[in-house]
Specification:
There is one protein chain. It is built from 7 helices and no strands. The chain is mainly alpha-helical. The longest helix has about 35 residues. It is globular.
């Protein structure tokens, strides 16, 4: 009962976070294009890349569920499928379609992320329905508060870690011309 409620909360938080990130990237895409990529004409490409992030965030609770059920092989299969798709579609776009633009590369990433997202839904649904088919969920405000506090701390910590781990890349991107 509580586990089903936590999964529902997770989906809601994933969706809200994904939407907020897309809106945020939309708001700063011009700045990223100008200052990091050094080409304002690529503002749209920066924005559409947010769809990759969107589908990644939407998969969070489902992957967490699979992980909590020790379904590591399925999680790795999802990752492998996404990587293989990215490479195959990218090679097809470059060598067959002769399309080498940043936009086409990002569209490949979006397609692979979207397929991976749907495959994650498929794997998750198969197991979730078996486990929670006849279980009703009940709103528990104590669990909601605890889960929200945990997620907030985790999100802040993960964001700081990601920023720290990528600081060198951001600095290099700022000082080096992206066309090199």
């Amino acid at each position: 009962e509580n586990a089903k409620f936590i999964i529902i909360i997770g989906f809601i938080i994933d969706f809200i976070t994904a939407i907020l990130l897309v809106v945020f990237i939309y708001g700063v895409s011009n700045l990223i294009a100008i200052h990091l990529i050094k080409n304002q004409m690529l503002e749209f490409e920066v924005f559409i890349y947010s769809l990759v992030i969107f589908f990644t965030f939407l998969s969070g609770t489902m992957l967490g569920y699979l992980q909590s059920n020790n379904m590591f092989i399925q999680i790795n299969i999802i990752s492998i499928i996404e990587m293989v798709l990215k490479n195959v579609i990218l090679l097809f776009a470059i060598f067959i379609l002769k399309e080498e633009s940043l936009k086409s590369i990002i569209i490949v990433l979006i397609c692979a992320s979207l397929f991976s997202y749907f495959y994650t839904i498929f794997i998750f649904s198969k197991n979730y329905i078996k486990q929670f088919k006849n279980i009703k969920y009940k709103v528990n405000f104590f669990i909601l508060k605890e889960y929200w506090n945990f997620n907030l701390k985790t999100f802040i910590s993960s964001s700081l870690k990601a920023g720290n781990n990528n600081m060198d890349t951001l600095l290099i991107a700022y000082f080096i011309n992206a066309n090199i």
